[in-house]
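Support request, priority: normal
Reporter: lab tech (M.K.)
Component: structure prediction queue

Hi team, I submitted a job for Iron ABC transporter substrate-binding protein from Methylocapsa polymorpha yesterday, and the status page still shows it as pending. I've pasted the exact input below so you can check whether something in the sequence is tripping the parser. The sequence length should be 342 residues. Please let me know if I need to resubmit or if it's stuck on your end.
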Amino acid sequence: MIPARKVLIAAALVALSLFAPPALSEPPTPPPAQKFIDAVGRSVDLPAHVERVIPAGPPAVVLVYALAPEKLLGLLESWTESRRAFVPEAYRGLPVLPRLTRAPSDADLALLRGQTADLIVDYGDIGKAYAASAERAQAALGVPSILLEGRMAETPEVLHSLGVILEKKERGDELAALAEHVLERLHPASSIDPERRVAVYLGRGPEGLLAVRPGGLLSEPIEAAGGRNVTPEGPGAFAQLNVAEAAALHPAVVILEDPSAADGPLSKALDPKTVILVDRGGPFGSMEAPPSINRLIGALALAAILHPDLAPPDPRFMRALRENFFGPLPKEAPLDPLERAR
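Reply from support: The job had stalled in the queue. We restarted it manually and it finished. Here are the results:
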């Protein structure tokens, strides 16, 4: 027989357990951070979930917009009127943010701190200046900042990697496979002998006289399409020319970023046989404005013009490429982003 005293003690303990406050549960363990090695070898701790992204420079705007536009906190330049037509209503009102790849002011940094971002992405040139910029941005905002390689050949890997980081792996892999296919289509033209390359001039600005220099990311679509950039080499990405200097380069093909330049003094000064193209890409330029994954579109369009035997025009694929990257084309938009003005 169990002694009565022990029964009473057991009953009291049961009663206490019934009325005692519930034990405090352990706080949920946050998901582990991701470790990422960026294009300049920086080891960056990334949050497990990335919902809000600050683009450090214009090429990063294009990259994030293609992968996950809903996570893009803003633009670095307002949509132009002609390119706004390519943008879904939900993203036409994105705010313009300060650009971190330039020297942001204290007011700029304060504005960006208010965005409560999870990640800063820079994409493009990976020189020392941009690596230092990524470090400064990370320290100033307390937000992890990564720098991704902007060379066209690296586009599939970049899309795959950032797709994983943004929890858009399926989307990233889809676009990576598409980019790989474009590079394969470009290979016959991009690998031709120097003597078969066509002389090409690419100019920005309302007069088309801010010429893209060869050798950098901005000129890559020309070389990938089997062209030869006729602008002289030199410091910086651009050369500011006058009309006589640009005409003296004797390009066979001129590509103008600004449609108004097609009717300007440069066009009149060129040889009448010169082919003049206007970049009608959207929502971003197709050649290099800005120099991001959109360059694949421009390179393929240009290759079909320079070397149709090596890169035959394929309107159906061009539509699929443009719409997979950036969404449905407006009804009035030309299918080919490089429109012939002459």
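The two ends are 110 Å apart (CA to CA). The longest strand covers residues 198-204. Let us know if anything else looks off. Ticket resolved.
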